[in-house]
Amino acid sequence: MNDILKAIKSRRSVRSFSDKQITDNELQAVLEAAQYAPTAGSQPWQFIAIQKEELINELSNASKEVAKNHEVEFIRKMANNKDFHAFYNAPTVILVCGDESLWTPADCAAATQNILLAAESLGLAACWINFGLFVFSSESGSTYNELLGIPEGYSPLYSVALGYRKGAVPAAAPRKKNVVTCIK
Ligand SMILES: Cc1cc2nc3c(=O)[nH]c(=O)nc-3n(C[C@H](O)[C@H](O)[C@H](O)COP(=O)(O)O)c2cc1C
């Protein structure tokens, strides 16, 4: 199996991080990989890397507050769990922000996957996180947009918790069967 296929298959969502910060070179490599994602044309993204622990904690707490009123029960349960941290105490969080163009969600999702695969290739641990973004859909969303320097017209669509893994590599969730049709 080649290195790319290996990285795709061995990448797992990691939810336990050591305190050690990733290096600037690692962060830059991951952010560069994000920018080489396929795009429907306009590269409609902005990436905000956060390495301030207090700010990461604040986003987690604020998102938990918003999620306490979510219509989905398991989300409310997570929000009410005092030990739950939306970014699992990762030392780095990357917000993948997009503009309002037609294909922005697809482009930004491709960029997010590139971040995850680049992280895997560098031996970093990562998890795609949407829970930590609930705050941006609330009334205080615009205050955080300003605080984080998110340009006008952009909003966080996805995020990634990033760091070094603490503990064992989680097992892969079983993959669904019968999802492929080949027409020749
Ligand atoms: C759109 C999206 C949002 C996600 N949000 C979260 C999240 O908020 N918290 C979390 O722990 N995992 C989140 N995940 C990770 C999934 O739970 C994970 O990818 C899935 O369980 C499969 O596990 P694997 O990534 O190890 O293959 C998200 C994944 C996607 C694609």
TrEMBL record:
One of its GO terms (molecular function) is oxidoreductase activity, acting on other nitrogenous compounds as donors, with NAD or NADP as acceptor. SUPFAM superfamilies: FMN-dependent nitroreductase-like. GO terms for cellular component: cytosol. One of its GO terms (biological process) is 2,4,6-trinitrotoluene catabolic process. Residues 8-164 form the Nitroreductase domain. Keywords: NAD. Gene3D superfamilies: NADH Oxidase. It comes from the Bacteria. This is Nitroreductase domain-containing protein. It comes from Anaerosporomusa subterranea.
